[in-house]
Every structure is written in structure tokens, then in C-alpha cells.
Design goal:
Number of helices: 6
Radius of gyration: 18 Å
Number of strands: 7
Strand order of the largest sheet: 3-4-5-6-7
Strand content: 15-25%
Largest sheet: 5 strands, mixed
Order of helices and strands: HEEHEEEHEHEHH
Shape: globular
Helix content: 40-55%
Length: about 200
């Protein structure tokens, strides 16, 4: 949010009054800044999809056109979030895979193969499919993704990439708008619902 007056700062305090521990306000600066905070993994798949939509909207410079695909229960053809991306001259998709941190669950090769097969039927054809996951980085899975990427490209199909949780946090440090919004719209509502 942009603000250049005391009135705007008062409005922000009213709007985000419950976030005083995380939000710093200034009457003299044009923008408010969120205090540095350890960003926790989203506790549910809905929040993780929202985070991915916000983040890749910034990365791909398509904030106004990026969308979540369909609704729960519908065939999504391996794609949870999508947009036309000028950089790739075509549609790009994200497959969001939330993993339970307590069991240290990881993305599997079978899951990857299954989602790639589904994404072949996405219309129009994808240029890129990103596996975004809350799972921690795994060298074996990253190697498997590179292998599948080369195979797909050799067939004239979409490129394949992966963003594990550490990669997502690295991107959030670069794309601060999404980082700030994720604290307000994703982390805080989850905390207020009693989920830590």
C-alpha cells in the first residue's frame, strides 16, 4: 500500500491493527515496510496456492492475468496456477505440492511423472511447468526434474522446473511485495485461526 500522509498511516493502523508486532509504519515514507520475519511454510494447500500465485505473478510479470486453475474436484490437467507469460511467448503452469513438514515428506518421481502426463492435456500447450513444493530441497528429485526437462524438450514439449521451499524463500527475499503480502494475507490469518 502506498501512503504519503498521516491520514493514510492512520488508516493502515486501523486496517492492520492486529499486526503491530510484524508491521512498521512511517509517517514520512511513501511505503510501509514489513519487519523481517521468519516465513513459515503455509499450513494448508489453499494458502500455498495463493502464495504461488502471488509470487509467480511477480516473477513472470503477469500479476493481473495469473489465475488459479478451476476449483477443487475438477480435472486441472496437472496445473494449479497458470498465466500467459510474455517471456516464454505462451502459457506457463505451476503444480503446487504441499508436503507435511512433520513427516519430512518429499515429492516423489511417481508424482512428478503423473503430473507431467496430466499437463500434456492442458490447453493451450504449456511452455513451462514448475513444480512448486513446500518440501525441502532434495538433490535426487532435482536431478530427476532435470532429466525429465531434457526428455520433454527433446520431444518439443514444455520445459520442467522445480522450486522447493528453500528456493521459494530465496525468491520471496527478492520479490518483497509478495513477501509482505504473504505475511498479511497468508501467515496472519492462519495464526489467528489458532494454527502455529
Amino acid at each position: 500500500l502506498l501512503a504519503s500522509s498521516a491520514a493514510s498511516d492512520v488508516y493502515k493502523r486501523q486496517l492492520y491493527g492486529g499486526l503491530n508486532k510484524r508491521v512498521k509504519y512511517s509517517l514520512t515514507e511513501d511505503v510501509y515496510m514489513i519487519a523481517q520475519t521468519q516465513l513459515k511454510k503455509p499450513s494448508n494447500w489453499q494458502d500455498f496456492e495463493k502464495l504461488c500465485k502471488l509470487l509467480w505473478g511477480e516473477i513472470w510479470i503477469c500479476e493481473d492475468t495469473i489465475k488459479r486453475h478451476g476449483r477443487q474436484g475438477q480435472n486441472q490437467y496437472g496445473v494449479d496456477v497458470f498465466s500467459y507469460v510474455e517471456k516464454y511467448s505462451g502459457y506457463c503452469g505451476i503444480q503446487c505440492k504441499g508436503k507435511d513438514d512433520y513427516t519430512n515428506a518429499q515429492l516423489t518421481e511417481a508424482e512428478i511423472d503423473n503430473e507431467i502426463t496430466k499437463a500434456l492435456d492442458f490447453e493451450p500447450n504449456l511452455k513451462l511447468l514448475v513444480f512448486a513444493t513446500t518440501a525441502n530441497k532434495d538433490a535426487k528429485i532435482e536431478g530427476y526434474i532435470r532429466k525429465k526437462d531434457i526428455e520433454n524438450r527433446a520431444k518439443g514439449l514444455f520445459a520442467i522446473d522445480i522450486a522447493s521451499w528453500e528456493d521459494i524463500v530465496d525468491q520471496l527475499e527478492r520479490y518483497r511485495t509478495t513477501y509482505n503480502l504473504s505475511l498479511i494475507h497468508i501467515s496472519e490469518p492462519t495464526r489467528r485461526r489458532g494454527i502455529s
